[in-house]
Amino acid sequence: MQSEQIRDLAVEALVDGKGQDIETLDVRGMTDITDFMIVVTGTSNRHVKALADRLLEALREHDSRPLGVEGLEDGEWVLIDYADVVVHVMHQKAREFYDLESLWNSDLRDAVVAQREGRGD
Known about the structure:
The chain has 121 residues and is an alpha+beta fold. It is built from five helices and five strands, in the order αββαβββααα.
């Protein structure tokens, strides 16, 4: 399955599960590890777990299995790794504290592109 298809199915499952502030980050060209990162907020630990379970089930129905799942027991921050798509299902406090979106912003993209092009700005 293409990374765009996994991304779209994941977002659909998170929307259906009432995930909040769903952010899809296109990190192609910034890292070789993955193509997309999805960050979503759950309103409670139970909601975080339910969102992660919903996403896992939705993708399982399309014969897509994650390489790994971490944090499902605690429900504070669940990381689901589909190789080309990495999903972070986070409780609001964890999301505010780690602020992943700011780590993968346009300034980083520009710096990585410059480095890869040999400019080293």
